[in-house]
Amino acid sequence: MHTERESVCCRDVEQTNFKLDVFNEEGHDIECITDHPGFGTVCLDRYVLETAYYQYRQQYGVPQQEDNEQQRYVAYRQFVRWCWGYLGREVRVVLPSCAVQRIRAQFPSQQYEGFQDL
């Protein structure tokens, strides 16, 4: 990640740590939010992201974006809604670097080409 502020472990973020603890209390043993089955469904599934984008576009009237850029942006929004439970234009949180890297790897951009293998 570009800055120390952005280099955050999911275990150091209260909301993602809570998601992991609840899941692990059900008899699982995972250490990273990207290993949670909900992460893939909510943040990486193209069909879920497509539907979430339609809602976002309807609510905010944003123009159509390039496919991977659109998927990446919506995946970040989905992650925040899933972990924090709410979302808004003024809601800004630092995402765990593991989640950002996983989303970037799934929906690459030329801008982030050098970061995909991190």
TrEMBL record:
User: Lineage in the entry?
Assistant: Eukaryota, Metazoa, Spiralia, Lophotrochozoa, Mollusca
Instruction: Report the Pfam families cross-referenced here.
Output: P2RX7_C
Please report the stretch or stretches of sequence annotated as the P2X purinoreceptor 7 intracellular domain: 10-115
Q: Which domain of life is it from?
A: Eukaryota
Report the protein name in the record: P2X purinoreceptor 7 intracellular domain-containing protein
UniProt source species = Mya arenaria (Soft-shell clam)
